[in-house]
Amino acid sequence: MAVFDDTLPWEKKLSIYPHHVKWQGMVPLAIKAKQEFVPLEAKEPLKEECKHFLDCIKHKSQPRTDGFEGVKVLHILNACQKALEEGHSIRIQSLDSIYNSPFIHPTSVIDDNVKIGIGTKIWHFSHILRGSKIGENCNIGQNVVIGPNVSIGDGCKIQNNVSVYEGVTLEDYVFCGPSVVFTNVYNPRAHIPRMKELRKTLVKKGATLGANCTIICGVTIGKYAFVGAGAVVTKDVPDYALVVGNPARQIGWMCECGNRLGEDFICPVCGKSYKTITFDKIDT
């Protein structure tokens, strides 16, 4: 048992009574324990709460007790109230399964043998084909086709009208703009089956693929690279590179925050310096 008495000095406000139960045969016997004081720092609680709240906003960090924690408390209290009113015990469903399960719009189709991480949202008229794996906290837009056997990491955003075909792998936090085009066969013919000739495409962590760009199969898009809208990528893109045009050519370097680096390799927006990173020479 824990007791908090705000009228006492700080060193005695919080005390613990480590009681326990000892069983004698089938009879529980309560064993009382002595009071133990837990020393506390002399701080104003409301002031500390406000400081923690502002610190979470500043650093975008997770608060000690967030909205989900509050929902869990209400969930348990509601179950207690229902048990009192109905006169019997109430089984509480796993809160993770209720509040962290993926959201799938009723118009979307999810095949068998598909894994979808918690917090992921799949919107209207999308189709996830067999064997595909989607990570946590992804956002899959309308009319998106994924698979079969495609792997997508955590935190990815795939906008409307994108098809991610077999052979394509997206690592964590990849952004695919509207109508991005992936291919998986280099020289397709309608009358010649070539699914055994798939060329794999890898998009590394944090990369951005702009709207309506086309990724020719068999290439690797480096981490935090940025492919401009409408570009046609025919060869590998280095980490942090900015590429545009048809065929895509490199014209600069990008910061992890999504802004173009200056000539000094310092981001003009967030101030992050990349002077210690060895970049490949820009291909002009």
Report on the architecture of this protein.
It is a single chain. The chain is α/β, with parallel strands linked by helices. The protein has three domains: 42 residues, no CATH class; 43 residues; 142 residues, Hexapeptide repeat proteins (UDP N-Acetylglucosamine Acyltransferase, domain 1, 3 Solenoid). Helix content is 14%, strand content 25%. It is built from three helices and 27 strands. A nine-stranded mixed beta sheet has the order 6-9-12-15-18-21-24-26-27, with no helix packed on it. Strands 8-11-14-17-20-23 form a six-stranded parallel beta sheet, with no helix packed on it. It is elongated and about 80 Å long. 22% of the residues are buried.
Features:
alpha/beta; 27 strands; UDP N-Acetylglucosamine Acyltransferase, domain 1; nine-stranded mixed beta sheet; six-stranded parallel beta sheet; 284 residues; 14% helix
Q: What is the total domain count?
A: 3
The CATH architecture of the largest domain would be: 3 Solenoid
Rg value: 27 Å
Low-confidence stretches: none
Helix/strand class: alpha/beta
Report the end-to-end length measured between terminal Cα atoms.
71 Å
Shape: elongated
Number of helices: 3
Helix residue percentage: 10-25%
What series of H and E elements makes up the topology?
A: EEEEEHHHEEEEEEEEEEEEEEEEEEEEEE
Count the E strands.
27
Content of β-strand: 15-25%
Mean pLDDT: 91
Query: Strands of the largest sheet, in order across it?
Result: 6-9-12-15-18-21-24-26-27
